[in-house]
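$ ./design --mode recover --in tokens.txt
reading tokens...
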């Protein structure tokens, strides 16, 4: 059974309601049995995923939304052996869809699901129990997201505007990173563990990341002066990480971040969580996801 997880608020927009009808026609033409599951409140998608993947049957959960919907579904997953996931992008940023090369055209995305089999990919598992399919991090990205959520603009450009505002005011913080038996102290702007390549509506911080290679990209940006920060940001935005001398990327299986300050917020697929520290590891090939041949 295929379950199309859709935010009810999205369907109030004619363009999204039309896209759902397009997707339904694809599934019906392929003779696939499906059910539309509407979400209304925060946490609904996760609850539906918990319910559906606890039945013991073989089911596919399809996020008709953006990164947040995918995040909720993987955090509600109870049966990785029998169940799989797919994505039909309807979000604003769609960072994971771009990382996974999933078509933004909903008809093509639906055809990908009905005409292929899911492939095993990795995901990030935090010690707290939280999961992340794309990137989990902390630093200036938290400030950017808080600005985005305070605004009313739903266009993708909102991320860029928020990032520029954050660059002008954000202050670096002291934190410790542990990985591969090493411990490093940093005074930095950003620290992240990446399974996917980009976040924040298109910032390509881990261009070499692969969704199914069994590794995470540990990405750290140390303090950058106000005079250089905009130039560095533009390089990060376009995937030219190696040209930013304050940035470093290391392939790891797991890592731990310990902040100097007590109030600590992390983000995963744009969702914010308060914590004192976070430790995460890669879980190799357990999630079955519908992807194009090119990964």
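writing sequence...
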């Amino acid at each position: 059974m295929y379950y199309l997880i859709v935010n009810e608020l999205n369907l109030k927009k004619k363009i999204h309601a039309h896209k759902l009808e397009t997707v339904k026609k694809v599934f019906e033409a392929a003779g696939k049995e499906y059910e539309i599951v509407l979400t209304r409140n925060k946490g609904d998608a996760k609850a539906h995923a918990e319910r559906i993947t606890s039945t013991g049957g073989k089911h596919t959960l399809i996020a008709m939304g953006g990164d947040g919907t995918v995040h909720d579904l993987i955090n509600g997953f109870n049966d990785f052996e029998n169940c799989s996931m797919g994505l039909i992008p309807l979000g604003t940023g769609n960072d994971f869809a771009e990382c996974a090369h999933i078509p933004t055209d909903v008809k093509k995305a639906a055809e990908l699901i009905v005409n292929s089999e899911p492939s095993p990919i990795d995901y990030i598992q935090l010690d707290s129990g939280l999961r992340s399919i794309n990137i989990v991090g902390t630093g200036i990205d938290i400030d950017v997201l808080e600005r985005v959520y305070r605004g009313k603009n739903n266009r993708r450009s909102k991320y860029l505007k928020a990032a520029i505002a954050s660059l002008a005011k954000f202050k670096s913080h002291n934190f410790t990173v542990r990985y591969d038996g090493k411990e490093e102290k940093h005074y930095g702007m950003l620290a992240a563990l990446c399974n996917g390549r980009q976040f924040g509506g298109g910032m390509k911080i881990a261009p070499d990341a692969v969704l199914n290679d069994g590794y995470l990209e540990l990405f750290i940006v140390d303090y950058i002066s106000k005079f250089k920060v905009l130039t560095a940001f533009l390089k990060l935005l376009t995937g030219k990480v190696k040209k930013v001398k304050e940035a470093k990327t290391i392939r790891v299986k797991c890592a731990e971040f310990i902040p100097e300050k007590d109030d600590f917020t992390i983000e995963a697929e744009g969702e914010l969580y308060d914590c004192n520290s976070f430790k995460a590891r890669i879980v190799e090939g357990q999630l079955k996801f519908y992807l194009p041949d090119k990964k």
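exit 0
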